[in-house]
């Protein structure tokens, strides 16, 4: 009888675990768009750096040091950014790399020109609108889509960097790989990488990844050595042939593994696009962000533009009004984002209308000073009688990295790059992880009422992003370089930082320690840290449906204070600021 009870209890336990696992999968499908990497607390406060010369802020000390070395040898901000990205591609494989994409903003001080370089992946020719649908009413789960090769987009990060370097670089391309080659030969596992390896189980399914990142089926310990010989070889090839991912030896490796889903023809057809930055004044500052296909630039500018129409001349330390107003502004901006932002090659985006003073003032009037709005719909910037657009079902994840650099001549780079989920698709080619960026598309082409979803899949189409590389000017002079990883919450992270720095004239280190706030829909998300506890009760009393979340931002910010560059890396990750 004892053994019978034991077996019954064991069966009940397994059944409970199965139910729990299914619930976790369901909740993850809904929240993966903002948490592709689990939270990480390094137990330290951000260390601030000051400089009258140059400033580098990246996601890893080794990358920041590589950028510093390039700048000390006479390279410019773009050269330094490429060197830093090369190192990140080795030591931070969970976030970016040769198999991904990104958005680069480059400011040339001498010519006073700001450029936006689009290195975002696009869908290969084999893609089709309903590739994630099993039937009309049943779609793939995120985890199923994650490891399916149909989610791998044509990588564009390095061809974009090569194009930008050809036009603006100063140092030799080959010389920007020296540090990365050393680390590919041997680097130490960081606490965050160790934690990501324990969390992202799909990595173990790749034979090579398991070989180099695991010991005896367990993720390598913190401080253990990783030797990525395949990546070392890929970096050597790339240092000699800057377009080898899309048109050379590395493209052949990708084609061999992925054809016919993604082929050499798809890779060679990828082209860098130089876009026009989107800029808007906020108070005495000019904020410039990246245009679609990322929703980052538009989202940040909409939030700030809405807030500028509301009286915010109060002390934020003695009220929750600042949090309430910001949250309501984000709710409005995200409602528009879900419907109107997609690849501009495939969808006519009402960009000017979305950022117009008239439209943002109209949207701001929907905000109540003492009460949360229960339901907020997207706006109608063109005053159309009926919109035939609908919200899509997409999952955008925060396995992304960001770096900010200003050189001694005042040139600047804001670069956000990504492979989407932690370790992307989990599949390696040439020692690097291939992205799963196509999960950023809506999983369906139309909603149940047959309304078009702008961000649906199509060949050569770029999925919507929230990456928000941002530069800030005052009196025609550069005063700030911003950006962060964090999936669809990136917009909130960047906008909140600017809101408190500019509107309330706070110090950068004060703003970085504030809890994150975001409302991407009916829910109000507040970062699950102790400093926010006292605010939550007041927000709930105003009608906010508050949920506490880990918000794994990685803000890397440069801000001018008293004619001096101030650099700060988010304490929520492992970044470091270096000034000289």
Structure description:
By secondary structure, this protein is of the alpha+beta class. It has a domain at 60-275 and 393-466 and 486-548: Gamma-glutamyltranspeptidase, small (S) subunit (Glutamine Phosphoribosylpyrophosphate, subunit 1, domain 1, 4-Layer Sandwich), CATH 3.60.20.40. A hairpin with a 2-residue loop joins strand 12 and strand 13 (285-289). Helix 3 (77-91) runs parallel beside helix 6, helix 13 (296-307) crosses helix 16 and helix 13 packs parallel to helix 17 (490-503). 35% of the residues lie in helices and 19% in strands.
Tell me the radius of gyration: 23 Å
- CATH arch. level architecture of the domain at 60-275 and 393-466 and 486-548: 4-Layer Sandwich
Q: Unreliable runs, pLDDT <50, ≥5 residues?
A: 1-30, 384-388
* Residue share in helix: 25-40%
Please indicate the percent range of residues in DSSP E strands (runs of 2 or more).
15-25%
Question: How is the main sheet built?
Answer: 7 strands, antiparallel
Q: Look at the structure and give the CATH class of the domain at 60-275 and 393-466 and 486-548.
A: Alpha Beta
**By helix and strand content, what is the structural category?**
alpha+beta
Q: CATH topology of the domain at 60-275 and 393-466 and 486-548, what is it called?
A: Glutamine Phosphoribosylpyrophosphate, subunit 1, domain 1
Strand order of the biggest β-sheet: 1-24-23-19-18-13-12
CATH superfamily (homologous) name of the domain at 60-275 and 393-466 and 486-548: Gamma-glutamyltranspeptidase, small (S) subunit
